[in-house]
Amino acid sequence: MTETTSGPARGSRSKGSKANKGLRIERIHTTPGVHPYDEVVWERRDVVMTNWRDGSINFEQRGVEFPDFWSVNAVNIVTSKYFRGAVGSPDREASLKQLIDRVVRTYRKAGEDNGYFASPADAEIFDHELTYALLHQVFSFNSPVWFNVGTKQPQQVSACFILSVDDSMESILGWYKEEGMIFKGGSGAGLNLSRIRSSKELLSSGGNASGPVSFMRGADASAGTIKSGGATRRAAKMVVLDVDHPDVEAFIETKVKEEEKIRALRDAGFDMDLGGDDITSVQYQNANNSVRVNDTFMKAVESGSSFGLRSRLTGEPIEEIDAKALFRKMAEAAWACADPGIQYDDTINHWHTSPESGRITASNPCSEYMHLDNSSCNLASLNLMKFLQDDDAGNQRFDAERFAKVVELVITAMDISICFADFPTEKIGETTRAFRQLGIGYANLGALLMATGHAYDSDGGRALAGAITSLMTGTSYKRSAELAAVVGTYDGYARNADAHKRVMRQHSDANAAAKRMDDLDTPVWAAATEAWQDVLRLGEKSGYRNAQASVLAPTGTIGLMMDCDTTGVEPDLALVKFKKLVGGGSMQIVNNTVPKALKRLGYQDEQVEAIVAHIAEHGNVIDAPGLKPAHYEVFDCAMGERSISPMGHVRMMAAAQPFLSGAISKTVNMPESATVEEIEEIYFEGWKLGIKALAIYRDNCKVGQPLSAKKKEEKEQAEPEVEKVVEYRPVRRRLPKGRPGITTSFTVGGAEGYMTANSYPDDGLGEVFLKMSKQGSTLAGMMDAFSIAVSVGLQYGVPLETYVSKFTNMRFEPAGMTDDPDVRMAQSIVDYIFRRLALDFLPFETRSALGIHSAEERQRHLETGSYEAADDEVDVEGLAQSAPRHVAAPKSSGSSPQSRSGSESAKEAHSSTELVEIQLGLNADAPLCFSCGTKMRRAGSCYLCEGCGSTSGCS
Predict the structure, then answer these.
(1) Among 120, 382, 587, 588, which one is least packed by beta carbons within 10 Å?
(2) Catalytic residue list contains 383
(3) The CATH number of domain 164-357, selected from 3.30.565.10, 3.20.70.20, 3.90.1570.10, 3.90.1150.10
(4) Domain boundaries in the chain?
(5) Among the options 366, 637, 932, 948, which is catalytic?
(6) Boundaries of each TSCPD domain copy (predicted)?
(7) Tens digit of pLDDT for each residue in 568-601?
(8) Is residue 366 annotated as part of the catalytic site, yes or no?
(9) Candidate list 364, 383, 546, 669, residue with the active-site label
(10) Ramachandran angles phi, psi of 894, nearest 5°
């Protein structure tokens, strides 16, 4: 894209900055005279999303319109999360066209109104190119854009917020309010509490101050209350405390002590699992905690010297501590409960473009956005796999030129959004408009590396990741400088010009010093070098439009919207994943990146087929036929037999960090066997490698995460033999997602109804659904409640014959004749239901003892004196038990060899995480989704549900 002279720019131009040019927009994907919608095949689909644990329907909208190449999962998530309007009303969006048009037309109009385009023709090209990129899943804006832009509600476009709090009660209470309003809107916020006086300092009245840890309790309770008041996920928040704050030890220990409390309550019989009824009694569970360390402290740790904790009022040391001992305490706490994380203050501020306007003291909840207090950042992420191409000779290349053009397009759109955006507080709005922070990033890095034959933990993988990140940020700042020439610099630029230009030189120098590795990354580095040269040249002339350009966010929900295999900077979860099918059902498939990787590594088609078949059966590449052991590392994943080492994750973060304005949302997963010393090493190496922030998670360190059966056995074997009092409790056996079922329509005394009875594939009734009368009526509600109660009882092992004996012969209206030849008279609806269930699911001997027989059996009794069939007669009862009448068989979970291979138990899975657990015999430390019941997976520092797109943190 280039810029040319046009009429005077309008609107959002910075004070004192004169500009008289508009952007000339270049076509990337579109064709003149052809709208992007006309180039794809559209189809209608039905979206019905259920909670597989209880069978309830969470969401239903039929006949929605999407391109035929969009996956079932992407369609479901966009329809349920992003379509606006009440479901069932004429105002409800029903097509992806409506959603994209709502957003793109708002951006185009704001761009025209504020002088971004050289001509109406350029505005139209911008419209078409943005539409194409969204339609073809090349990139996506963050969730608030899809929620709010183009609607009548406030047009909030940002998901990431940083607040501030001062050492006064007025400010502290203001913090509670501002944070609550952000949580209410479904977003997250972070802040640093270090300005608040410690509990070791005096108030003006002479008493001791409460300290920040005390005030954290109130904020935590507020977050938990707002969450339970309507949201289905925890409030996302980050709390930071400086390492030199006198209360830092108490801050470090907050969650450790609460974890001990959780254990004690659990052992006393309270429900302390994530989402459990009693977990809300525990404090400090709604925030991620991080300690902000500086170079002085880290050098003291390195040398084993003392370190001073400083007064908040005077800045003078009030206590000397052993730096190494405090660092050890941080690692011990992280080992025990995953908190606190660590943020490296001097590194962060070394890359700060606006230091004259204030230091960077905090981050958003996921730690990728770091800038001034009371500010926000709107995000967008590119799908890297869309830029991997094969040339005419079949060789792979990353299309750096097209990637840069899309980055320019997206940065332009993101900056335009600030012109019309609304913000949750006036202070955040003022700061964001003055500094115009953007957060472009990417997803699918893990898939890209595997597809190109690079191990995630390899020099080649890190070189390609670094090159792409450098090109993205360099191109972003180049476009920012071009925008500054068109609509002016950000308001704070003049004051911070020297610092901003210094940071640009630091990025450029890091790009020049980076190691080139192979034919894939070298051309990308060359394009990045050219971009950074343009950044320095154009920035010197025009300044910059944006104080910040790039971050690496979790890309949770929008990653699923773009059909990405991996989120953010993360590696692949596993080689085999779960895929939903059109029309219902699911199948397990080997990731599409695996065949691409094998071809890149030089394997022939027959070899690729054999290796893929092995992976489909075993879930890993170990001993795959014909696969060289040297290539195993290419297929290492986040979980499994060959999982990536913790330092492998750290080194990847270090490869991308020098080329980002902000930071990286990522948690370094560590095995349960990890030691405190290993955590210390990771925190120390993170500082040495120039990372801005990181957090660790040791498997099974949280009480709320249940141990796998295998690990429970190992733990029990390791414990000394002592006399134990064993309390046996029933275990709920849940139905698989695909289950055989019988739907029966019936009439009892003139009252009509429907009953659906679903059973386990192997044996036995598992759940019952009853529909009577109009939805919302008292009878319908009572029948729903009754169905759930019976279903839960069945799944906990209550025999069906027990229900039959209790509920048959129960008498109440309506009663009388039925339309069922097997049950001609019923004393009540309940009497009929359990007679019908007994006939369908109980063996002859059991129901005969209860006096329940079919019409055919009663006729046989009249003729022969026996209800039972003769030996030479067809075993009708046996056939009925093996194939119930009116069985609504589940959709095939895959007719391909891939879907049938692997463990039969894999059919019990409902997400990729659960599939990995079953295949590998391990337990993933992740909560269950509150919306649909499936197990979530990590996305950066948050959790993501593959089933419905819900997240546990930032959208």
Answers:
(1) 120
(2) no
(3) 3.20.70.20
(4) 2-157+362-557, 164-357, 741-882
(5) 366
(6) 739-839
(7) 999 998 898 777 766 666 667 788 899 999 999 9
(8) yes
(9) 364
(10) 125, 120
